[in-house]
Write a structure and sequence with these properties.
By secondary structure, this protein is an alpha+beta fold. The chain is built from six helices and six strands, in the order αββαααββαββα.
Length: 185
Amino acid sequence: MTPDPRDPRPLIGEPLALDLLNTRWAGTPLNDLLDGVPGYGIWLSSNGLDGRCAADPAGLEAVLGAREALALAFQDISGKGELGPEARAGLDALLDHGRLRRTAGPGGPEERIETDGPQWLAPWLVADDLLGLLAQGAARIKQCAHEACVLHFFDASQNGRRRWCRMAVCGNRAKAARHYVKARG
């Protein structure tokens, strides 16, 4: 999937749940792609959802609620290694707005997502994606180790030791800072 060329975010292409968390990134004030319906449309487009979800105020409101539920879930994951009761309730509330319907189609098994309304498709997909990531290992869901970075990523490295959202940016900044301190030393 090709990200929308209008997407200004520094990290694009993470799994859907983390990509939603990454709609806020470092800056003063904090940058927020979802500060209005146009930004929501860009996020939908970057994730290939623009043909399935309308960029409208109802959808934006629902996805902002999903982002807050994900943020709470990530706090629990990074602090305790698992979801607490409040985070589970937040995710379950999102998942309650839809379901996966399986049918026997003419060409074989078919799956269709049904939601309470069109504004709930993206939030449902995001919550479902997070459950899939958790099934692969909560420890693989990480925040960048650079102190000024707020971005999240799924560590798909073989040894699970990835520390930076992007080595070329945050990793190099950290190395340069360590070198500067050592050189002044």
